[in-house]
Amino acid sequence: MAKNKGLIKFSLEMIVVVVIAAIVFTKIVIPIRIDGESMYPTLHDKDTAIINALYLSKSDIKRFDIIVLRCDKLDKDIVKRVIGLPGDTIIFKDDRLYINGTYYSEDYLDKKYIEEAKVKYSVELFTNDFEIALKDDEIFVLGDNRLRSADSRTLGTFKYSDIIGKKGIIIYPFSNMEFIS
């Protein structure tokens, strides 16, 4: 009888642990593995990160934030950088970003890597020229490695409801550990 009580207690404790872990890792923080080169050199292929999923409202999402999105076209979660917000007009011309007519220096991009990538892939532009006007419910995202990224240029725009997290920390490999903002 005591053995059965011990087994029942252990089983209940395990159920509680599993439920708490499920809530934490689906509603508070989301573990994600970086898949591919689209955010290189900011993030690396196979990095593992924990991303904040708590209290995400429209006002929490700022231009140039790194976010995790649910991408139905690829049937997976993707990590990208917010470039355009609802109502913006985005223009890339000669590797220069203009939003609503104002030039933005993309200081978060690694200039040395850009030059190396242009040579490696024999291209003149890191970001091909384009223009897009966003509707009132659309956001536009790009990968930091524009030559190797499936992003809003090919996948289309996203909605706030597609965002599942932002900000976090790379937890593995330890050599890449850093905050993601």
Overview features:
elongated; 181 residues; four-stranded antiparallel beta sheet; Umud Fragment, subunit A; seven-stranded antiparallel beta sheet; alpha+beta
List the helices and strands and how they pair.
Layout: H1 2-28, E1 29-33, E2 48-52, E3 66-71, E4 76-84, E5 89-93, E6 96-99, E7 102-104, H2 111-120, E8 130-133, E9 140-142, H3 152-155, E10 163-172, E11 179-180
Antiparallel strand pairs: 1-2, 2-10, 3-4, 3-10, 4-9, 5-6, 5-8, 6-7, 10-11
GO biological process, one term: signal peptide processing
Active site: 38, 80
Family: Belongs to the peptidase S26 family.
Quickly give the CATH architecture.
Answer: Ribbon
| Biggest sheet descriptor | 7 strands, antiparallel
Tell me the series of helices and strands, N- to C-terminal.
HEEEEEEEHEEHEE
CATH superfamily: Umud Fragment, subunit A
In DSSP terms (H or I, runs of 4 or more residues), the helix count works out at: 3
CATH topology grouping: Umud Fragment, subunit A
User: What is the global morphology?
Assistant: elongated
Structural class: alpha+beta
Note the beta-strand portion: 25-35%
User: Approximately how much helix is present in the residues?
Assistant: 10-25%
Counted up, domains total 1
Description:
- The structure is a single chain.
- The protein is of the alpha+beta class.
- It has a single domain (2-180), classed as Umud Fragment, subunit A.
- It is built from three helices and eleven strands; from the N terminus they run αβββββββαββαββ.
- Strands 1, 2, 3, 4, 9, 10 and 11 form a seven-stranded antiparallel sheet that branches. A four-stranded antiparallel sheet has the order 7-6-5-8, with no helix packed on it.
- The longest helix has 27 residues, at 2-28.
- The radius of gyration is 20 Å and the shape is elongated.
